Amino acid sequence: MTDGLPLRGKRVLVVEDGPTLTHGGMPFGAGWIAARREGAAQIVDPRPYAVGSIREIYESYPQTGPVLPAMGYSAAQVAELAETIRRVPADVVVVASPIDLRRLVALDQPAVRVTYELQEVGEPTLTDVLARHGLLGVRPRAVAAR
């Protein structure tokens, strides 16, 4: 579901959850699906416009499709993400990351946020899988930065 701007007939840049694309191995996510469903004329491939560590992410994770992984673990990486977004010739930025980039980065283009919810269908459920591995009720531990 998108909040706001219509996408029909627009050239869009889709910014997806970075770890879903990289470590999760998915070529695209909810933002790409929403852009297609909402009638975007074109999903602009950001790879030719990527700078710095964002370009390196595409090299390290070549399965990533024509979407931009939202990565920003340092001030420098956030700046490279912002510069990559600025370089992409799009009418609208579709933000489909857990963090609303509109609060983190000043965007030159109008932006719309995509959200989604998990609906389990069939079995095993996520709860079943977590229970099978003894992970129900386990809280993630903080990992010290290196």
Briefly say what this structure is.
This protein is 28% helix and 16% strand. It has 146 residues and is an alpha/beta fold.
Give an account of the 3D structure:
The protein is of the alpha/beta class and 146 residues long. It has one domain. Helices cover 28% and strands 16% of the residues. It is built from five helices and six strands. It has helices at 18-21, 30-37, 52-60, 75-87, 126-132; strands spanning 2-3, 11-17, 42-43, 68-70, 92-96, 111-114. Strands 1, 2, 3, 4, 5 and 6 form a six-stranded mixed sheet that branches. It is globular, with a radius of gyration of 17 Å. It starts with a strand and ends in a 14-residue tail after the last helix.
Layout of helices and strands, plus pairs?
Elements (H helix, E strand, L loop, with lengths): L1 E2 L7 E7 H4 L8 H8 L4 E2 L8 H9 L7 E3 L4 H13 L4 E5 L14 E4 L11 H7 L14
Parallel strand pairs: 2-3, 2-4, 2-5, 5-6
Antiparallel strand pairs: 1-6
Helical percentage:
25-40%
What's the quaternary structure here? single chain
Q: Quickly count the domains.
A: 1
For the CA atoms, what is the radius of gyration? 17 Å
Low-confidence region ranges: none
H/E topology pattern? EEHHEHEHEEH
Rough outline: globular
Strand content: 15-25%
Say how many strands there are. Answer: 6
In whole angstroms, how far apart are the ends?
37 Å
- What's the mean pLDDT score? 88
Number of helices: 5
Q: Main β-sheet, in a few words?
A: 6 strands, mixed
Look at the helices and sheets and give the structural class: alpha/beta
